[in-house]
Design a protein that fits this description.
By secondary structure, the chain is of the alpha/beta class. It folds into two domains: 260 residues, LarA, N-terminal domain (Rossmann fold); 212 residues, no CATH class. The chain is 31% helix and 18% strand. It has a six-stranded mixed β-sheet with strand order 1-10-9-6-2-3, sandwiched between helices. A four-stranded parallel β-sheet has the order 12-13-14-15. Helix 1 packs across helix 2, helix 6 runs antiparallel to helix 8 and helix 13 runs antiparallel to helix 15. The chain starts with 22 loop residues before the first strand and ends in a 7-residue tail after the last strand.
Length: 549
């Protein structure tokens, strides 16, 4: 079945081809059924067998992309390939994340994959360097004089002859580092080495999260694609499978699945560009009026650290008003970093903004040696524009949270304040109060089983409360996204970086002329955080300008 997605124009420097994805199903209004997905995977298995692959490595995401349907695809594909190939292994694209345990494997694959057989990528140890983009090329792409090359180190299993085909299965979704996640990022970062991960994240933080989110031509995306084309494509045969999921409904809807092999000038590139265009349609929303108060609920099954949970900050920052309040209800968050080194660095320096992170980098050699931590501290900060109040699990104390630069709210108090009595977290739709009733409110409150007493909320007016998160942005944010300050090459890079322009206010009221106005009920989800918004007054959501992924 041919893809129904409408292609969006791409900048001239993004390579395109007149070709199409190898396999494609779906579109902006499609609802790919389980039967259709199974048929797609049967065709995919046929492609694997037809190329003569005997040893196959399947690379899904981890449980933080639970809604991607990648686990289901891998489980189906492994079963179909059994008896047709000699070897099938599964290695999740962990990046810096913790390995999957038996419970996470069951969440992803059901009983189809034995947890004991899953291979775990160790980003500090299991890698080999296959090439390097020079510093002058990086500077040109990023637009800052950083003086740092980008080495490409990947899991050695990709290039040591262990496998004659890699099947990379991931979700394309707006992303704070690469503009859109998935595709070459899934293998170059998900199975990447320390310097590749550290520096790519740092480059993105320097360039600016506001200029990156939802951009198919984001600098780090360009660098990752160039590295794959030059250093990996000839040494590692990769078949990419890319999903696009829309979670603006009771259940996430699989809008499209696309497959292609190879780099940007092959069907793999066509599959990515098609998937990114679809993701831009279904995963990006624009709001006309910035949020004054926003509540994000993090699923405890998926989010156990602020390293992951700070997606709540990434995905709302472009829509938050100056002086606004973001509440992050995170019952599963028990630590800061995904490993002891990152955890210690976050505790030591906290989320205090770009200048503070760069100044700390200049005096703390351990932080300077972990550029991904520097990037994370920058991405997780609001630059003082709005406040973040975390309500974590009991393992993190008030002193821990406030020491990291956030405000603290006890989890029991947060759940009592923002959840109606007797409502299972899994059934949350949610609530807002004050300033009138939106037409969506009745149906939404009915869905959670009853009205919400006023004393569940602060007396201050609540414009919007998000419990299952997506990303939203104010239209004005995109007007300024192309601008970034250059840094003089003769100045030391740590000092020069501290002089980069501070993040400015992007949440201002604007006239929106492009796109279709939607009612608040149509707000959806982006990525692996689920978002529901209910507004105290009607808020128009317009077209696609930005959400976060």
């Amino acid at each position: 079945m041919a893809a129904q997605t409408r292609r969006h124009p791409y900048p001239a420097d993004v390579p395109t081809t007149p070709g199409r994805p190898l396999l494609a199903v779906g579109g902006s209004t499609a609802d790919v059924s389980r039967d259709e997905l199974a048929a797609f995977v049967r065709d995919l298995a046929g492609e694997v067998v037809s190329v003569g692959a005997r040893s196959v490595l399947l690379v899904p995401p981890d449980q933080t992309r639970l809604q991607s349907r990648a686990g289901e695809i891998v489980a189906l594909l492994a079963g179909l390939l059994e008896g047709h190939v000699e070897r099938i292994d599964v290695m999740p694209a962990l990046g810096t994340h913790q390995p999957l345990g038996p419970a996470e494997c069951r969440l992803m694959f059901g009983d189809a994959i034995d947890p004991a057989s899953v291979l775990h990528h160790r980003w500090r140890d299991d890698v080999t360097t296959v090439g390097e983009l020079p510093a002058d090329e990086v500077d040109e792409v990023v637009g800052h004089s950083l003086g740092l090359p980008l080495p490409f180190a990947v899991n050695r299993a990709l290039v040591d002859g262990s496998y004659d085909l890699v099947v990379s299965v991931g979700q394309v979704v707006p992303h704070e580092v690469a503009g859109f996640g998935g595709y070459t990022k899934h293998v170059s970062i998900g199975l990447g080495g320390e310097e590749t991960i550290q520096r790519s994240h740092f480059f993105s933080a320097v360039y600016g999260i506001e200029q990156t989110l939802g951009r198919v031509d984001a600098p780090v995306r360009q660098l990752l694609d160039r590295g794959f084309d030059r250093f990996l494509e000839q040494r590692c045969r990769v078949l990419f499978v890319l999903t696009v999921v829309d979670a603006r409904h009771e259940e996430p809807v699989l809008r499209g699945v696309f497959a292609g092999e190879g780099g940007t000038r092959s069907s793999g590139g066509d599959a990515f560009r098609t998937a990114a265009a679809l993701s831009a349609e279904v995963n990006i929303e624009t709001v006309e009026t910035p949020f004054r108060r926003c509540v994000a609920y993090l699923d405890p099954v998926e989010y156990r650290s602020t390293w992951l949970g700070n997606k709540a900050v990434y995905r709302t920052r472009l829509a938050m008003a100056d002086g606004g309040e973001l509440f992050v209800v995170a019952p599963g968050v028990s630590h800061f970093g995904e490993d002891p080194v990152m955890d210690a660095l976050i505790r030591r320096h906290g989320y205090r903004g770009r200048e503070a992170a760069l100044e700390a980098m200049a005096v703390d050699p351990e932080l300077a040696a972990n550029l991904a931590a520097v990037a994370h501290l920058i991405h997780g900060s609001t630059e003082g524009r709005f406040t973040v109040t975390y309500a974590p699990g009991d393992e993190l104390s008030r002193a821990d949270v406030e020491g990291a630069g956030f405000q603290y709210l006890p989890i029991d108090e947060a759940l009592e304040r923002y959840l109606p009595d007797g409502v299972d977290i899994a059934d949350i739709a949610y609530l807002a109060q004050g300033g009138g009733v939106d037409a969506c409110e009745g149906a939404l409150l009915h869905a959670v089983g009853g009205a919400v007493a006023e004393d569940h909320l602060d007396r201050a007016a609540v414009d919007e409360v998000q419990l299952l998160l997506r990303v939203v942005v104010v239209e004005a944010a995109f007007d300024a996204r192309r601008h970034h300050d250059r840094v003089h090459a003769e100045r030391g890079h740590a000092e020069a970086l501290a002089d980069l322009a501070k993040a400015g206010a992007v949440a201002e009221r604007v006239e929106v002329t492009d796109g279709v106005a939607l009612g608040a009920c149509h707000l959806g989800e982006l990525g692996s955080l689920h978002l529901r918004l209910l507004l105290g007054r009607r808020l128009s959501v317009v077209g696609h300008v930005a959400a976060l992924g």
